[in-house]
Amino acid sequence: MGRALVTGAAGFLGSHLCDRLIAEGHEVIGMDNLITGDLKNIEHLFKNEKFTFYNHDVSNFIHVPGDLDYILHFASPASPIDYLKIPIQTLKVGSLGTHNCLGLALAKGARILVASTSEIYGDPHVHPQTEDYWGNVNPVGPRGVYDEAKRFQEAMTMAYHTYHGLETRIVRIFNTYGPRMRLNDGRVLPAFIGQALRGEDLTIFGDGSQTRSFCYVDDLIEGIYRLLLSDHAQPVNIGNPDEISIGDFAEEIIKLTGTDQKVVYKELPVDDPTQRRPDITKAQNILGWEPKVNRAEGLKITYEYFKSLPSEELYKKEHKDFSQYARKNK
Ligand code: UDP
């Protein structure tokens, strides 16, 4: 059992990771600056003596007293809406934040796992996406701030591995969903479920022919935990290869929620990938991992979670006022 630092601990994935690490018997230090994260996601851990929380922005120098065995770098805005609002913060946490985490890992002799993303493939010309595909990314488009920060993150992580011999792991995370996603983060699943719960029409961007492949959070965390314990330094895709068009996905949400609303069509965002599906052969071979929760089961659990939230959450348009952070980072 070890001592682990999780950055982005109050976020959707970070909080589930903290839960898993604690369940495995590790001591966990959770770090977050709470821009897009929410303490509600980790409140239940505060009474656990194996959990400590630091409110800190990892784009600044990170100090952690004592030994560390693992660092899991999950701090970053991760929804297109968020990184459009705080683009510079997004670039900084993927670059400077990653550099600080790598330096800390080196100083502590810790193994580090960094959260990368299917976004590094951009609008992919290879389908499904294998790890050896280099991607099709627009560096100066609206998604560039996230995509390029994550590509830099991978390059920096590999450099620490090859130059310093640091033990590094890179997970490329595909679209993931489940409890603790933010209802107003702009992602398609909370957007559709929120709209159904409020009695609004479901907004499909473009003609709905673009595809995504949605992975339930417990499956993703299992894959990440296996990768952490493996000896594989090259990037590994973790996601669910069950691909669906956004139009069909809207129909699934309409059925699931029983809403009598219809779909309406809005403009497709710039550089919105037309198709996305992970090739998970590598994860299957190296980690013996594949997803277990199908979309019907996962969506049911997630819908119940969103229904259980206080109704003011449903009507909150903004998570918080990002302008103060945006100003700070000009
Ligand atoms: N999308 C949509 N309606 C919404 C929100 C998103 O049709 O209200 C589309 C979006 O254009 C994209 C897909 O759903 O094609 C997935 O979007 P999301 O923001 O969840 O994640 P992405 O995979 O694009 O990062």
Care to describe what's here?
The protein has 330 residues and is of the alpha/beta class. The chain folds into two domains: 3-176 and 215-238, NAD(P)-binding Rossmann-like Domain (Rossmann fold, 3-Layer(aba) Sandwich); 179-213 and 242-276 and 294-328, UDP-galactose 4-epimerase, domain 1, CATH 3.90.25.10. It is 39% helix and 16% strand. The chain has eleven helices and 13 strands. It has a seven-stranded parallel beta sheet, with helices on both faces. It has a two-stranded parallel ribbon with strand order 7-10. Helix 4 links the parallel strand 5 (111-117) and strand 6. The model has no long low-confidence stretch (mean pLDDT 96). Uridine-5'-diphosphate (UDP) binds at residues 79-80, 175, 186-188, 191, 203-205, 210, 212, 246, 269, 272.
Number of contiguous helices = 11
**Average pLDDT rating:** 96
CATH class of the largest domain: Alpha Beta
- CATH homology superfamily of the largest domain: NAD(P)-binding Rossmann-like Domain
Task: Give me a quick take on this structure.
The chain is α/β, with parallel strands linked by helices and 330 residues long.
Task: Please write out the topology.
Elements: E1 3-7, H1 12-23, E2 27-32, E3 51-55, E4 70-73, H2 80-85, H3 87-108, E5 111-117, H4 144-164, E6 168-173, E7 176-177, H5 188-198, E8 202-205, E9 211-213, E10 215-216, H6 217-229, E11 236-238, E12 243-245, H7 246-257, E13 263-266, H8 281-287, H9 295-308, H10 311-315, H11 323-328
Bound molecules: uridine-5'-diphosphate (UDP).
Residues 79-80, 175, 186-188, 191, 203-205, 210, 212, 246, 269, 272 line the site of uridine-5'-diphosphate.
